Amino acid sequence: MTGDLTGALARLLSPLAWRTPARSARKLYAFALAEQGSMLDLRLAAARTSSPARAAAYLRHADDEARHAQMFARRAARLAGEARRPFALPPVRADSERLFELLGEREFLAFVHVGEERARRQFEAYVTWFKGQARDQDAALFETILVDERRHGEYTRALLFALAGDVEARRALRRVARWELGRRWLRAGRFVAERVYLALTLALYVLAAPLALLVRLVRPIRPGLRVEGSAGLPAPK
């Protein structure tokens, strides 16, 4: 159900998300940041897992994510230069969320699997939309990355079920889905709160301007007023 919703939303929002080169550049830049952040988390997981085999798998995955980040960043930079008002994007610098330490290896694997499957459905929807718009270069970009995304989804599921067993693996997937939903809700709340605060601050300044002008009209500052302690008055002893 969640996967179907992810694909449906991607198809629905594609005309808006990819409407202009500027919008496309910013969205691809966001994907580059996400891929680099995932790369950092996977490298930390490789350093902390007790299994050499899983460490090797995490490192291979991290190399893929680093390559994806570069691919997204290069295409984003090209589109930013093609925008009606060309602009430069900042360097891709993401932070690790330290998810392996936060969740433990079982839930970490479940989280990565859920994320890879969500990205796969999202990217598949984008490929379909780009082909319909004759944007072959963008379609080819996502098709190339999809090869890795499908492999990532398969290996993380296999590792999770081998590590936890069928019953516990399915429970971990459900727990991670709930946790991720709560995290997204909190992020959305912070995003809305920041925008509301900005709007209220701007409204306050707009409303304060005529009030300040009215005060100056009613109580104008008169020149020549003398303040206690100024020249001509005796200094305090």
Pick out its properties.
237 residues, mainly alpha, 7 helices
Structure description:
- The chain has 237 residues and is mostly helical.
- It is built from seven helices and no strands.
- Helix 3 (52-82) packs antiparallel against helix 6 (136-164), helix 5 (105-132) runs antiparallel to helix 6 and helix 5 crosses helix 7 (166-218).
- The termini are far apart.
At a glance:
This protein is mainly α and 237 residues long.
Structural classification: mainly alpha
Rg of Cα set: 27 Å
Give the mean pLDDT. 86
Helix content: over 70%
How many helical stretches?
Answer: 7
Overall shape: extended
Gap from first CA to last CA: 84 Å
Question: How do the helices and strands line up, and which of them pair or pack?
Answer:
Layout: H1 2-17, H2 21-48, H3 52-82, H4 99-103, H5 105-132, H6 136-164, H7 166-218
Helix pairs in contact: 1-5, 2-3, 3-6, 5-6, 5-7, 6-7
